Here is the input.
Amino acid sequence: MAGQDSATGAPNGVDRVSFLLARHGGITSARIRDALAEIGYSPRQGSTLMTLAETGKMSQQALGETMGIDPSVLVGILNDLEGGELVERRRDPADRRRHIVAITAKGERALADVRTVLAGVDRALFADLEAGELAQLRRLLAKVRTKPDDPACTE
Amino acid sequence: MAGQDSATGAPNGVDRVSFLLARHGGITSARIRDALAEIGYSPRQGSTLMTLAETGKMSQQALGETMGIDPSVLVGILNDLEGGELVERRRDPADRRRHIVAITAKGERALADVRTVLAGVDRALFADLEAGELAQLRRLLAKVRTKPDDPACTE
DNA sequence: GCAGATGGTTTGTATCGATCAACGATTGAT
DNA sequence: ATCAATCGTTGATCGATACAAACCATCTGC
Here is the structure.
């Protein structure tokens, strides 16, 4: 009577898995946003620092492509980060149109703060999960098909 | 070197679980939105139909509270749904200020379409998960602490 | 009957995100 | 030397969302 498929017993209403995932994802985003805001960063800024630290210095367009955001919005993010001396824009000697973006030492320290804060978010969100369950959750989430977004699959 | 905690081996960068959850949640929301849009509904309209079918007829304010949306936006949603004769607003005889919102027979049929479409989204998203894994994912997601959002926990 | 509170509605505003067009600087090909 | 393409940048626009204020109809307590 309350959204259960009478045959399979699987929820097919507001408790459907995709709904759960969407809702929890939204709440998680909000938590991340709030947590980062408390130390003065936006989610994009945090992502940028992490991406730069993990993938290494790269051109602005490559960075935008990696993060999946428009080049024109990346400009603003980098302006803010560079204003705080957390990243550095250098012209590529090989192609002087390009800006090579690199994280600075100060940016690395900021990144440590970001990671600390994010760890707190994880701790709060997943407090009721054992380590094994958390690893399991990560494994299952990684198996969710989120790639075939761009191609015309829906058609 | 790429976002792994050297001690625990747990990701603490862009591959952190909360980030995974946030990203996948966003993508899932987009998928749901697109899928519902193809049959002419918004996510809110779909949620409204499901909530009404699962919880039964209720006052507008109770509905808004259940769905976690502002009363003033619920008005527009219900206007659209009522325009399509999918829901019905009746005045509560006991309190003629109240609007009792109920799903109609036509709304039930629309709801069936909505559920079909959403099942398709689930199938596409979770194609690589076995039934057991999907159930496991649902179980783990349900254990994520998303309630302590409202109270002043962050302070 | 009156004052205040409540349910629903309307309106306006602020914000955010995504998207697009156009521009200056620079490169590469011809 | 010239032309087309590329990179970063600026600016405008659009849609969705959240939020608050004011309004009318109605209920409740006195």
